[in-house]
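Bench log. Compound arrived from synthesis this morning; before running ITC I wanted a structural hypothesis for how zinc ion sits in the protein. Inputs:
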Amino acid sequence: MPYERPEKRDCPDCGVAPGRLHRPSCDVERCGHCGGQALSCDCEPSERRAYQEPWSGVWPGFEEAIEFGLFAKRSPDGLGWVCCDEDDPEAYPDLNRLAGSGEFAWDRERRRFVRN
Ligand SMILES: [Zn+2]
Ligand SMILES: [Zn+2]
């Protein structure tokens, strides 16, 4: 059974509705310039503003991870995550692999990760 796409909802941190810009200092906001977390990335504020993206209603990266078939679940020892199949009942979109593996790169014009 394919992974069920998450429902659109208000931002879990700042509470804005889908399609609206996040409130300042939102934890969830993704930087449209580098694809990192807007709160902690190294971009200049002007770069971040130029590529600011509204809240999509789905956690940043979920849609790409689902599209690329990247899934992980909590490892049995509870210390980390292990790759798994999308039909595993505990599967969760694998954002670490999306952003941290070097297999995918942020495409700032399309505001999404693409395969390298
Ligand atoms: Zn937010
Ligand atoms: Zn950035």
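What the model suggests: The chain has two domains: 9-59, 61-110. The chain has a mean pLDDT of 94.
ITC booked for Thursday regardless.
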